[in-house]
Amino acid sequence: MKTLISGGTVVTAIDTVVADVLIDGEVIVALAAPGAHRWADEADQVIDASGKYVVPGGVDPHTHMELPFGGTYASDTFETGTRAAAFGGTTTIVDFAVQVKGESLLDGFDVWMAKAKDNCAVDYGFHMIAGDINERSLSEMDVLVERGCTSFKLFMAYPGVLYSDDGDILRAMQKAAETDSMIMMHAENGMAIDVLREQAIERGETDPVYHSLTRPPSTESEAVHRAIVLAELAGAHLYVVHMSAKEAVAEIAEARDKGLPVFAETCPQYLFLSVEDHVSAEGFEGAKYVCSTPIRKREDGHQDALWMGLATNDLQVVSTDHCPFCMDDHPVLGTQKQLGVGDFTKIPNGLPGVEDRFQLIYHGGVVEGRISLNRWIELTSTAAAKIFGMYPKKGTIAVGSDADIVIFDPAVEWTKSVSQHHMDVDYSPYEGKDVKGRVETVLLRGNVIVNGDEYVGQIGDGQYLPRGRVTVHH
Ligand code: URP
Ligand code: ZN
Ligand code: ZN
């Protein structure tokens, strides 16, 4: 099957060029000046992309479909979450398999592989959450690397649940250095935060806003600093997830200026939402915006610092940390955010976003003049593909790359709402936001899976993607 995408503006992390793109089967086989070859005559399908951007499918390296958390599960299954990802222009996700305390890393990996198998609309890989570092899990890291799971997430937060102490972290980092794999870090000082949370509840400070206020920026930046020190000691690659504090960005910048292989991401919620406008909303509404690291105060300049970090490459990736929980009871999972009515410490942590990210970063970044078109693609696709060993199969439009392609209409103006999204969650954190630019058509390995408002793929089209090592050094 040959498909021609004709006359669009092809945008990669490097180039912006009007070109025809020829796809044969699952891969891109040629690019040429528009009409330079008679490809339309031999193609089975021609998609006219004149006036549109033709961009690589988004790569979201941080999602949590079906994650067990706080007595419930993230409401998107692999089926609903990856279909929503497709609608949003994301054709690859890297989700997190979980090792629970007392169990093996490999068992956790197998469980998550089984959950995803035949249930995904887009391609998927896994990082492994190592929740119990011991001799056995350290040796299992070798096996997982061979299976294409080349990154391991550790938690400096959530004591008693997924938390690792500094000794365990150092041992896991040494193992990662030995296997040339990546350590991903949830960097917050969980021990200190637990004290602050307990004291807040004792004072009767139970509303959702206290979730943000009991995780001050220093609890993030201290942990980021410590993670960098430990990674340097071990000689490991480090990738800090879901950064939200400007002080933490400064720690990353300092480490990178020293030449250390340190990478970091932020997420749309930290770029667009604030304590003032969202988390401190009336009544229990603020629970919609409870996640960790927390949404921070706009007046303190965190959003501006994050955007600047993205523009200057102190931050390399925008992921979503997609981890949705419903405000009203979910038909299958029951009570979710409302578990924390009267006690913010019981609100499940996480926000939806897998469908929003690609377009929101176009809007807030390109339309509002903070980043270039090429940087938009680098932040939402190319950099994650390089850092997590998927490039150039994923993350670019080039001869030989998978034909994961989004045709994006930059002219459409629309308003975001829960009523038009496809994620299985009953609110949008961006409700009522006017935006410009919209995903029009999505191809996964050469097949059209989204055509306007219609999903035309099949659940199960998405394949497991074994990943290699990091292919970018700074
Ligand atoms: O609030 C968050 N981030 N929920 C998902 C779990 C995690 O820590 O990434
Ligand atoms: Zn985390
Ligand atoms: Zn996460």
Overview of this protein structure:
The chain is α/β, with parallel strands linked by helices and 474 residues long. Helices cover 31% and strands 23% of the residues. The chain has helices at residues 39-42, 78-87, 105-116, 135-146, 166-179, 190-202, 209-213, 217-234, 246-257, 268-272, 275-279, 302-312, 357-367, 373-387; strands at 2-11, 16-24, 27-32, 45-48, 53-56, 58-63, 68-69, 72-73, 90-99, 123-130, 151-155, 182-186, 237-240, 262-266, 317-318, 405-415, 434-444, 447-451, 454-455. α5 (166-179) packs across α8 (217-234) and α8 (217-234) runs parallel beside α9 (246-257). The longest helix is centred in the middle third of the chain and has 18 residues, at 217-234. The radius of gyration is 21 Å and the shape is globular. Bound molecules: N-(aminocarbonyl)-beta-alanine and zinc ion (2 copies). Residues 186, 241-242 line the site of one zinc ion.
